[in-house]
Amino acid sequence: MTTSSTTSSAPSTDASGILPAELEDLVALFDVRATDSPTPDAEREAALQAPKFGTVFSDHMARISWRQGDGWLDRRIEKYGPLQIDPATAVLHYAQEIFEGMKAYKHDDGSVWTFRPDANAARFARSAHRLALPSLSVDDFIGSIAALVRTDLDWVPSGEDSSLYLRPFMFASETFLGVRPAAEVEYLVIASPVGPYFAGGVKPVSIWVSEDYHRSGPGVTGDAKCGGNYAASLLPQMIAQEQGFDQVCFLDATTNTYLEELGGMNVFVVMADGSVHTPELTGSILEGVTRSSILQLAADHGRDVVERRIPISEIAAGLADGSVAEMFACGTAAVITPVGRLAGSSFDHQVGGGEPGELTMAIRSELTDIQYGRAADRHGWMRRLA
Ligand SMILES: *Cc1c(COP(=O)(O)O)cnc(C)c1O
Fold first, then answer.
1. Helix or strand or coil: residue 13?
2. What are 8-52's pLDDT values in tens digits?
């Protein structure tokens, strides 16, 4: 069992040291080839009024190509549009692909910011290593995001809890059916305006704990952000939904007893004694940026913050006897989602009477206040992009 202290989760890895002048230099590396057919203003404004997650994309995308021997080439911003891909492109067969998820937030003064991009850049590099993809520098990662956001600045929504979702990704683009790491790779960033995740107020979700499927296991790719992990989570997710649940939660693959995470979100448990617990990183859990930020904020609140192996039996019993007070899931897209019901083959309990927990909602507001510039950024998490 490890107990996080404020020092162990201090955001030292997030201190990019990138000054505005240096950011200019990184952005200047990108050749902007602007589209000659941008979305008409009225159409864009309509899309920004009621954005639906992941369905509408901005006018441009950032792109860098990689070839073995030559490295990263041709940094550019180009018109958003379909890629031409040979049917024998390696990623379509062997899933050599990774991605990231981040947001650009517009503050009241019109400036645009992102949250802990260095942590995403570092994770992208770790994911690349695990998937035998070439590593992209932090500079190129942040430069590509800033260059895209500046080109498509009009696409950053200003509505309450709205943002421009950023999706950097990298895939094996070589036309080759042999099994080995690709010698040609593409890196792109696309952007999609998103509105509040919970339109009409935060609503707790119901969760089914799967004992039949795992999203990963020891030595597999669980701690890398790769499309393959998601592919493996879709069937259990579908089964959970068929049983009337919103989301599936996975247990560890070795003992089938410890809480791991959802298909795309980390989980937290708040005990009645006020302590805040989350599964420790085992190698099969994705290290969320939201997760690590919440650990810090909970510690700031003076809470006991505990990263440990959490038996699902303990949580089921704790929900029955009241020692578990709150549960929530977290990730960039939804920030924090309260859990209102947790069930598995041998238990079915409401969490917090099915209402969002007090600490859950307090941390949620605190985090979004920092992201939207409504609260002091005391940990230096925000990076200005434009
Ligand atoms: C992206 C992701 C998360 C959340 O990570 P954040 O950095 O907080 O967005 C959690 N679990 C999985 C499996 C993920 O892919």
1. helix
2. 333 333 444 566 678 999 999 999 999 999 999 999 999 998 888
Q: Confirm or reject: Cβ of 286 under 6 Å from ligand 1.
A: yes
User: Do residues 272 and 352 share a domain?
Assistant: yes
The identity of residue 44, as a single letter, is: R
Residue 9 Cβ < 6 Å to ligand 1: no
Residue 209 counted as domain residue: yes
Q: Of the residues 197, 221, 244, which one is the last residue of a structural domain?
A: 197
Identify the residue whose C-alpha is closest to ligand 1 atom 5: 288
Atom of ligand 1 nearest to the CA of 293: 8
Q: What are phi and psi of 259, to 5 degrees?
A: -65, 130
State pTM to two decimals: 0.94
The domain boundary residue, chosen from 165, 197, 229: 197
Pairing label, strands 205-210, 335-344: parallel
Same domain assignment for residues 158 and 186:
yes
Give yes or no: residues 93 and 223 share one domain. no
Closest residue CA from atom 10 of ligand 1: 265
Structural domain including 34 reads 20-197
Task: Return the SS3 of 115.
Answer: strand
| Nearest CA owner, ligand 1 atom 6 | 288
User: Six-digit token pair at 306?
Assistant: 């505990």
CATH code (residue 300): 3.20.10.10
pLDDT single digits (tens) 85-131: 999 999 999 999 999 999 999 999 999 999 999 999 999 999 999 99
- Give the distance (Å) from ligand 1 centre to CA of residue 165: 14
CB neighbours of 17 closer than 8 A, spacing ≥ 6? none
SS3 36: coil
DSSP state of 320: H
Residue 15 lies in a domain: no
| Same-domain check for residues 75 and 117 | yes
Count: domains in the chain: 2
Three-state DSSP class for 358?
Answer: helix
Q: Is 101 near ligand 1, meaning CB less than 6 Å away?
A: yes
